[in-house]
Amino acid sequence: MAIILGIESSCDESAAALIGSDRSILAHRLAGQEDAHRPYGGVVPEIAARAHVQVLTPLIEAALKDAGLTLDDVDAVAATAGPGLIGGVMVGLVTAKALAMAAGKPLIAVNHLEGHALSPRLADASLEFPYLLLLVSGGHCQILRVDGVGQYRRLATTIDDAAGEAFDKTAKILGLGYPGGPRVEALARTGDARAVPLPRPLLGSAEPHFSFAGLKSAVLRASQSGNYRPEDIAASFQAAVVDCLVDRLEKALNAPLDQSSPPPSVPSEVEGRLTEGSTRSLDFARELGMGQKPRTLVVAGGVAANGAIRSALEALAARHDMGFVAPPLWLCTDNAAMIGWAGAERFALGLTDPLDIAARPRWPLDPLAEAARGAGVKA
Ligand code: KG4
Ligand code: ZN
């Protein structure tokens, strides 16, 4: 069994974990920074980077102690090398490089999104490639076809905000504070999801892309109107997000089976704001029904911790006769176990990296989907 030390520092969680290639979680430690960022209502990059400097080394020491291991027992050091807040990513990556160099172990530079994308395979040994992945976090909202380690085809992305961002902004509007997602979910439990009429951006549109900016503005207007209870706004907002996620996934799953069918048209309000890759994704959407169709629907990323979203996706998978895999809640939000696991998957394939590899603020999983046209488009 190979043992991988995983390090995560791309946002506001500092984390270290020791993961076995047999899926054993030998140790995982996490230090959140909520208190440091709370006064600002969101993550302040410079504060995050400084906090990572302070806590990362003690966290790694603690994880090694928990596992009863030393660096000598570790086969490789894996760290998030992007995408994320660059100061924090550099802190974690430099720490990993120093440890790898000192201990004479290989370095593995992990794409944080790959950590999320492969995390369901750490939790569920039976999950095989290919699978259809909804990756929903604070920074991303994408539908990806996962064909293997390092093999990702992006079928859809958001044209403005990520779903987690919409949760966080809704929390801010409702005065729930930070971090927002879990608080909106908790408040939504006591509200009426039909009480506030909110839009479902891009619902029914031909491509499976997402948009949440208009929903966020509608939440702001509803809140400012004074006509609605906060719990009803939270519940109605969450229901709108669920509807959008399910509809867009339906679209990806029901993509035409036949290459000869006419390409779906892009709605005029979206045209010109899409990335080159997202236009290209139409072909991949068509491909979904060809070759080997993914038999499992998988959700990962921080927003995958949301109970309403998980149950809606489970029902969607059942309607399509697909399996459904969602990692346990702690593995959905940022952690180092998923980085250690992605490291283990890469290590098994001999994929290690040179010590001069650079940290990357942006690093799309599907490089062909990288080129962006138009402002405000996220890879
Ligand atoms: O994956 P993650 O921990 O960090 C990123 O890589 O972005 O995702 C964090 C996001 C935040 O926007 C947070 O509000 C959201 O995930 N989140 C949730 C829930 N738990 C975390 N959103 C909705 N419901 C939740 N229970
Ligand atoms: Zn994340």
User: Hetero groups bound?
Assistant: 5'-O-[(R)-(carboxyoxy)(hydroxy)phosphoryl]adenosine, zinc ion
Q: Percentage of helical residues?
A: 40-55%
* Portion in beta strands: 15-25%
Low-confidence residue ranges: 257-290, 370-379
The protein's oligomeric status is single chain
Q: What does the main sheet amount to?
A: 5 strands, mixed
Number of strands: 10
Kindly provide the name of the CATH class of the largest domain.
Alpha Beta
Shape estimate = globular
Cα distance spanning the termini: 36 Å
Strand order of the largest sheet: 3-2-1-4-5
Number of helices: 12
* CATH architecture heading of the largest domain: 2-Layer Sandwich
CATH topology of the largest domain: Nucleotidyltransferase, domain 5
- Mean pLDDT comes to 89
CATH superfamily membership of the largest domain, which one? ATPase, nucleotide binding domain
| Helix-strand makeup class | alpha/beta
Q: Determine Rg (CA atoms, Å).
A: 20 Å
